[in-house]
Amino acid sequence: MAQSGARYTHRVQTMFTPHQYELLREYAAETRKPMSVIVRETVVRHLLEKIEQQRKQNALRRLCSGDAPVSDWPEMERQIETLWEETELEKIEQQRKQRAFEWLCSQSLPVDDWEVMERQIETMWETYG
């Protein structure tokens, strides 16, 4: 999951107890790594990689529940990749809808004029797409 040369563009903030912070700070000094790198690597290793693996397992289960041509490995591999891509596309689509909905909730839209409101929603939907 960790990609060489990855470009990190999103920031997450978290809070620690004084004791947790001190342990993290000491560990960072011992390993000569920034605390942010330690936290990111830990999240990737202990959470995100497991989530990604679970999604792949779910795609494989969906594939195995159907009529897969087990004698044709290239075809089966394409089906696995297709199911994985569909899962990722569903996730991306859900994120787009969530961002559009968040935008909608933050606006003062003219609820008395549905056509205007609908055009604004569609514009934002395309913008966030």
In short:
The protein is mostly helical.
Mean pLDDT: 78
Task: Extract low-pLDDT stretches.
Answer: none
Report on the biggest sheet. none
Compute the CA-based radius of gyration.
22 Å
Descriptors:
mainly alpha, 4 helices, flat, 2 domains, 129 residues
Tell me what you see in this structure.
The protein is flat. The mean pLDDT is 78. It has 129 residues and is mainly α. The protein has two domains: 53 residues, no CATH class; 58 residues.
What is the secondary structure topology, with strand pairs?
Blueprint: H1 18-31, H2 35-64, H3 73-106, H4 114-127
